[in-house]
């Protein structure tokens, strides 16, 4: 079972298929958060407001095709994994076009009873990439913290140098006033 919580956007127009796909996902992912849409506009909204880790999409939808959804997803984030779960892609050329268009894979709905088994390696790859990116983000965060600490140290040194300049100028002024007082006392 995949322990990492996944946000999954499911683009599916049939409620029964959406329920079956969601049940299969729940068998392989411990804490999935699945949002279901069936058109381009709702997909755009969920991409921006839900920010999924992966998109699963049917190919034939009432108002568009899966390739339209894929195009919207790739415009949003070219690296967002996209998997077709469809009954339509029996045509080898169409299947090849989906992959060439940027889909990460596809699974036929006729394999719905084994969808979890077929989906698991694809979702594991998604999780692996997420964790790899998270590790990179953590390194970047730590580097930014280090750079900020260096900048703070340099600012502190500059501030200390400025304080030292001011102190030196005060000492010089005091020395000059003492020297002037001595000269005036010697003249008197």
Automatic annotation (TrEMBL):
Keyword Phosphoprotein: yes
Top-level taxon: Bacteria
Pfam families: Response_reg (PF00072)
SUPFAM superfamilies: CheY-like
Residue list for modification 4-aspartylphosphate: 58
Gene Ontology terms describing biological process: phosphorelay signal transduction system
Boundaries of every Response regulatory domain copy: 7-124
Gene3D superfamilies: 3.40.50.2300
InterPro entries: Bact_response_regulator (IPR050595), CheY-like_superfamily (IPR011006), Sig_transdc_resp-reg_receiver (IPR001789)
Coiled coil segments of this chain: 154-188
Alphabetized UniProt keyword annotations: Coiled coil, Phosphoprotein
PROSITE patterns (UniProt xref): RESPONSE_REGULATORY (PS50110)
PANTHER family: RESPONSE REGULATORY DOMAIN-CONTAINING PROTEIN, STRESS RESPONSE REGULATOR PROTEIN 1
UniProt name for this protein: Response regulator receiver domain-containing protein
Upper lineage: Bacteria, Pseudomonadati, Bacteroidota, Flavobacteriia, Flavobacteriales
